[in-house]
Amino acid sequence: MHELILHHYPNSPFAEKTRLMLGFKQLSWRSVMIPPIMPKDDLLALTGGYRKTPVLQVGADIYCDTALIARRLDAEKATPTLHPAEAEFAVASFAQWVDTVVFQHAVSLVFQPESIAVRFAQVPPEFLQAFVKDRTALFTGGSAQRLSVEQAKHQWPTIMQRLQAQLAAQSGDYLFGEPSVADFSMAHALWFLRATPVTSPLVDAYPDVVAWLDRVLGFGHGAMSEMSGEEAIGVAREANAAALPEESFSDPNGFKAGQQVTIAATDYGVDPVAGELLFSGSEELILRREDPRAGSVNVHFPRFGFQIKPA
Question: Which CDD domains match (predicted)?
Fold first, then answer.
């Protein structure tokens, strides 16, 4: 059994989503800190180009995107599950909506000028310039469009009122009764907003939401110990990738196992990863690539939100 290694940085909202899921499952994990902006040489040695945060590593298997990371954590420890069987479609679909639509609102609200002034008050001006340049590149070339601050402010009360109503109507303490990936997806967007006094009132004005959010954040982050990027690359180099899923290989566009392809996100952070397509399943794509530092690694992507192209 290999250790769970999370490549992340403290202020990343999607990293917080993953840290909370690790806490919910009471898992032990290794923490590799990565830069919030490019270059990310150690991370890219493992992923082959995928630069979003976070990335989960298990030996020589590299998992991209929190939707797939959640499923890998369920495989690591089945209970408590992030995808309750009786509500799997609902929680997975809700999480997908939050990670796109709600997160898009949160980004616009957090990066409005008044909030930026507070959030980056203690950093050198040159870092802020580099950060803005990095995020501009991150959101170039994909389907994601930056929502205007005015539109985000206009629509935000609807999102929060619906959330408040769901919590009031639900018999349990969580969005779908018991904790699930849906809770951690919504929580990370609100956690992001609560980071500055400019945007925290957008959450704190809803007492039922605050009570629920505090319950979700109360799961903590599990048992973490530090690891360097170089050590993580060494783990990948010395490990053998896990066996492929037992599910049949199935690709509706005719891609075949062994074919040289690229896989990339479609929304933002669309940098392609090239390699040999090993597996195409209902939820997961697996690509094998060789790296001078990391050796042979299998990079895993969710099907939803990613595309395959011939190399």
Answer: GST_C_family, GST_N_family
